[in-house]
Amino acid sequence: MASQESQMQVMDGANGASSDEPASKRVKLDTPMQDSQDAPEIQKTDRVKGVAPIKQEYLILAPGQTGAAEENAAMDDDAAEGRTAPNPSDKRDARDARDGGGRDGRRKKQKGGQNKEREFGTFSDAIRLCNSVAWTPEFSPRPCKQGERCNGLHDLRKYLKEGRRADLETFGGKCPVWETHGRCSSGWRCLFVSSHMQEIEREDGRKELVLTVDSTKVASGDDVEGDEAKPGVVNMVAPQVKVDLSRKKVDLNKSEAYLAWLGQDTERYRTHHHKQKGDEDVAKDYRAQYIEPPFKPSEKRRLYFGPETPTLAPLTTQGNLPFRRLCVELGAQVTYSEMALGMPLLQGAKADWTLMRAHQSEVTPPRYTPTSIIRDYDNAKDLKFGVQIAANIPWVAIKSTEALTRFLPHLRLVDLNCGCPIDMVFKTGAGSALLDSPSKLERMIRGMNAVSDDVPITAKIRMGVRDDKPTAQKLIERLAFGSPEMRDTAGAPGCAAITLHGRSRQQRYTRAADWSYIAECAALIKSYEKKSDELADTIREADANTLPNGGKMYFLGNGDVYSHVDYLDHVEKAKVDSVMIGRGAIIKPWVFEEIEKGQYLDKSASERLTYIEKFARYGLEAWGSDELGVNFTRRFLLEFLSFFTRYVPIGLLEYLPPSINERPPAYRGRNDLETLLASKNYKDWIKISDMFLGPAPAEFKFQPKHKSNSYEIEAEG
Ligand SMILES: Cc1cc2nc3c(=O)[nH]c(=O)nc-3n(C[C@H](O)[C@H](O)[C@H](O)COP(=O)(O)O)c2cc1C
């Protein structure tokens, strides 16, 4: 039985763990449980594998059921993540989503239990308002570029009456964007427009509709009008840049010069490697023929990852700007964009450039409380937000890196995805396919470093492609030092940090991440630090800056972290510099707060609802409060809820610690809201979204990613 005196397991980061057991087994009594009247009894008990130990009184059992593991069917966590998520600001993506087509324009075949051809309905007004009148006072429209041919509506009053649905009543009918920022970038299309419009009588007696502004709240730079204006959002790339990229008018001269050199160098390297005995005269040795590249990596801004910088993983679809903003607010210190594909970036695709946007809270420095002196790291110049790209050939990785670092002013780093397991990426030779092409990967990292100015380059890897053949250790050595030939001539590749997800490509989420392998890799990297000092002594002066961070390559572990206990345990035992958190952060974004406070937080259902509200507010700010923006917000809120509703309140658990790999049998919460927030039915998620976004339009559709249950995902890294 649970007792009021029961105490929760807490690991004290400062003092370290008292036990040598892994976090999943250890139980230590310490801090009283927060917020819960009904604290679980802490005891070591054999847990049923894969099943969350819900207290008997909360179980909902149909007659004849026992709540045992085998009844907990179809709880596999591996399925499809896919690229079905449309980009809110990209009308083409909205069309793709509507048509069930992917971003590559090809229709995907329905397979297995995954809803690959998900449809999301149309999100538009009944009558389209022309942009020339969308943000202006009624009597002073901008000139319409289409002139006579324009099929948009120019009559504002008609639009407000017939062209769109009535204003929403949520948020007290007040536009949350306007309330925060003093103006609303959705203009007349805002679904809360009556809260920021007025009718003014002019001297000639005519009555004019105008949009109001609260100048006391408008921040400098936020007074831009139109589609592209998003208060608090940085890394907005001008439309003309994307047009120029699409017309190949952007001169990526550094990359061109580097690639020309790389072509010749690859040939020298190949000849050297294929030389036969006796071919000495033809091939000599690589070093003798080596010619310096046209661009050496410039001095990079230094990075820092430590126990105080819990890191939010790159998460396609889920790791969107409103979600990252919520996580930063709750204590995430480092964030990554969703993965963008190199080629569409180079083609100026709006969807991929939009992924590179960040919230202003992400461009503040990460927490920094090192225990030893970190040379030349300037925390004031550092920021939280980095971007991730995937590429299958060096020129794509190199050119897209040059474009990113040229056009995005706020970048902590550019990370190369070497872990994405999905076929669409893997089969092109990108993502986890790079794990089996170390030479290509090395060339990518070197090239990216050469063209990225002061922005550091990092990589995210998996243990290997196949389960029975982990290759990460070799790869890490390669990323740290380069192949012997390249090392002698060009120095180290300059990879500033590596994140290792402790699974192979083949491995399913049902099997736990391998933290002992991660620990081995961490030990290996520690042993390199000495070696790189020696290397720094021996490489020529000019190449010293090929060693990032003054010789330190940071190493992050990743996989299955679900609480401060897991986090601190891995920092301490696996000896990683920091830990990256993916699904755990979507299920309970306050995991970052737990890490900061060093204790479990039993968030009540109403507190959890405030996070949903925040997501809705932040979504409206990022994607707009018009019909399109509201429904993109709804779409992504439902995606978020598909994970968020997996949280099992710890007050309902018989034993701790909670584990991300355990699924609950059917249960009810401590109140109706808690029960609703545990629903696996997406129709309930839509009900939750209605609380903040009003009723979903009749045409709105949402299909969870998996038909049989909403747990299914396909990870991209
Ligand atoms: C929905 C989802 C999307 C993901 N998208 C990416 C991605 O774009 N890039 C990437 O490197 N990894 C991606 N991953 C992998 C995560 O970054 C992380 O490596 C993985 O989920 C393991 O960490 P976890 O156990 O903390 O979730 C994704 C994972 C999930 C669940």
Automatic annotation (TrEMBL):
Subcellular location: Cytoplasm; Nucleus
One of the record's GO molecular function terms: tRNA-dihydrouridine47 synthase activity
Keyword check for Transit peptide: no
GO biological process: mRNA processing
Task performed by this protein: Catalyzes the synthesis of dihydrouridine, a modified base found in the D-loop of most tRNAs. Specifically modifies U47 in cytoplasmic tRNAs. Catalyzes the synthesis of dihydrouridine in some mRNAs, thereby affecting their translation.
Classification via PANTHER family: TRNA-DIHYDROURIDINE(47) SYNTHASE [NAD(P)(+)]-LIKE (PTHR45846)
Protein's recorded name: tRNA-dihydrouridine(47) synthase [NAD(P)(+)]
